[in-house]
Amino acid sequence: MNITKHIALFTLLLMVFSCQTETKEEKQTASYAEELHSFARPNTSAIKHLNLDIDVDFETEIISGIATYTIENNNATEIILDTKFLVIDNVEADGKTTTFKLGEFDELLGQPLTIDIKNSTKTITVTYKTTEKTEALQWLTPQQTADKAHPFLFTQGQAILTRTWIPIQDSPQIRITYDATVKVPKELMAVMSAENPKTKSANGEYSFKMKQPISPYLIALAVGDIEYKAVSNRTGVYAEKSMVDKAQFEFSDMEKMVVAAENLYGDYDWDQFDVIVLPPSFPFGGMENPRLTFATPTVIAGDKSLTSLIAHELAHSWSGNLVTNATWNDFWLNEGFTVYFEIRIMEAVYGKDRANMIALIGRQDLDDEIENLKKEPNRTKLKLNLKGKNPDDGMNSIAYDKGYLFLRTLEETVGREKFDVFLKNYFKTHAFSTITTEKFLNYLNANLLEPNNITFNTEEWIFQPGIPSNQAIIASDKFANAEKTLNHFLKSDTIDASLTIDWTTLEWVHFIRNFPKTMTAKDVSRFDEAFNLSNATNSHIAMVWFEQAINLDYHGNNVDQNIEDFLIRVGRRWYVETLFKAFEKNGKTEEALAIYKKSRANYHSVTANTIDKLLGL
Ligand code: BES
Ligand code: ZN
Questions:
Q1: What's the domain count of the chain?
Q2: Four-point Cα dihedral 520, 526, 529, 534, nearest 10
Q3: Are residues 108 and 142 in the same domain?
């Protein structure tokens, strides 16, 4: 070999080598997007697996135990976990006690737990306990449960609360597998977002395994006197004894929903899809904890009329749990896609009429939200900027309803067939990873818009406030009919109830929400006489009716007492916030405060925080 050849070879090798190190470096720095809501620095050391060994003590209302993590160590000398309101008793690195520091407390983010490690360290172990301030947990007395005999506990991790019950790198960009051993009083059963028991154990000890990597906000635990009933061989319900048959009936279409979802966007990747019906203080309608959706009992209407919530949480098994928003600024990628997918599932199982009614209610919510935010238009952008903000306060229905409208507009522009192929590939390509808005944009351009030669104002939809003018128009004959009936009732002396005979819950909701602002309390009372809406057993109908009773200053048919009872019993934030907002908006702060004094103790921290702010407490 002559010298030039030597040099050429050397240069080539150098190029290959430097190229490799460059991609490696690029991968390391580019692999985690900027994170505003976690102290962790996963580029240098990231947790990969969690082994949790905890004791749930209802006497002291404390969870205590040991968390062991397997870590990916890129030559690090420390690893940082997020904690908030936790007591750290001891920390080990590869089985030997090591030094650690709890940093300064931040109101929003908590405290970084910085642990000294060696570049060879593979596992760390933290012995810790929760405190009475721990925000993820709600400990319920027997009185707050359906059966009134035993206490209950549930966790809520999203958005940044997992760190209040487990020390963790609490960013959605982190993905870990986990297993857990949980000790509870032996009359109770424990379930998690993992492979779950179907019967009680003899000694109150349960073990769990989540073998797919999930983001920390999806780690969840519920403990109570619950039972399991199957709906199909891969779907079923957990609930207290007095609720479990009702839940099994209400959710009896679950298997059909899973089949419809799989037909749309590919296999269900989590084996089992169960729902646990929690006590009514649960702060959300539903929470998509993998394999085990947590749900409010207010969806159990007796007629399956509110089960789009199950379609929604199921849809998160793809949009959210499989393909996860990289940061909370990209929250619309979780919720907008999920509302779109939810409505497609509902259309496939129940038909277009029902799907369009759900879509149109969302469309009206979107108008209301834009009106609410008219002084803060930046908050109507899909891509958020939550710097210095609690993701929980920064999020609103924009992510859901504008996100939906964007995707529906896109679908109508490119045609459903192409859009479905695109979405199916999107989920497959990004399965078990996280995605930023910008990465999504590139993917959309490269895989849907450019190949089909379509120009679309994607950037306007995502980065600008308000609703672009090319928005899809959503219409519903059923709602048009409900509006016609409302106008007819308002004009006539008598109310012909037979005109509403075939109405579903959604038509009732639309009818009530469309009351003119000028409607008199007397008109309200005529409707109440005809339909007894002040005593509606359907929670959604009750909520919108109560809202109107507050708006229109109606006090008949025991409605005031019913509103108070509802607000004391139910902790679902959307309902509670709607009603307290109505009090505020109508200058009825005193009534609001009087009720809140009695109801606050029943609320989970996320609901209480929202209402505290709303009422200026
Ligand atoms: N993941 C959300 C709940 C959530 C959002 C918790 C943000 C914490 C922070 C869940 O999937 C959801 O959207 N629930 C809705 C359901 C509805 C849109 C059908 C709810 O609770 O009302
Ligand atoms: Zn959701």
A1: 5
A2: -30
A3: yes
The residue whose CA has the least distance to atom 5 of ligand 1 is 158
More confident residue, 21 or 301: 301
Is the Cα torsion angle 26, 27, 29, 33 positive or negative in sign? Answer: positive
The answer on 388 and 527 residing in a single domain is no
Residue 314 to residue 308: CA distance in whole angstroms: 10
- Same domain (yes/no): 585, 488: yes
pLDDT in tens, 519-562: 998 999 999 999 999 999 999 999 999 999 999 999 999 999 99
Minimum mean pLDDT among 31-35, 399-403, 456-460: which range?
Answer: 31-35
Domain that holds residue 50: 45-224
Task: Please give the distance, rounded to the nearest whole angstrom, from the Cα atom of residue 332 to the centre of ligand 2.
Answer: 10
How far, rounded to the nearest angstrom, does the alpha carbon of residue 575 sit from its chain's CA centroid? 15
Q: Which of 1-5, 297-301, 473-477, 523-527 has the lowest mean pLDDT?
A: 1-5
In a domain, 527, yes or no: yes
Question: What's the token pair of residue 46?
Answer: 């990231």
The answer to whether residue 38 is domain-embedded is no
pLDDT at residue 509 in the model: 98
In the annotation, is 313 catalytic? yes
Q: Which residues' Cβ are closer than 6 Å to ligand 1? A: 158-159, 284-288, 309, 312-313, 316, 335, 392, 395, 400, 574
Q: Rounded CA gap, 196 and 404, in Å?
A: 33
The predicted structure's pLDDT at residue 316: 99
CA 411 to chain centre: 24
| CA–CA separation, 462 and 336 (whole Å) | 11
Kindly state whether residues 26 and 85 are assigned to the same domain.
Answer: no
Asked if residue 414 and residue 400 are part of one domain, the reply reads yes
Nearest ligand by distance to the CA of 159 = 1
Does residue 230 belong to any structural domain of this protein?
no
| Of 562, 571, 560, 559, residue with least CA distance to 599 | 571
Strand partners, 223: 153, 190
Residue-wise pLDDT for 392-425, tens only, equals: 988 899 999 999 999 999 999 999 999 999 999 9
Is residue 533 in some structural domain? yes
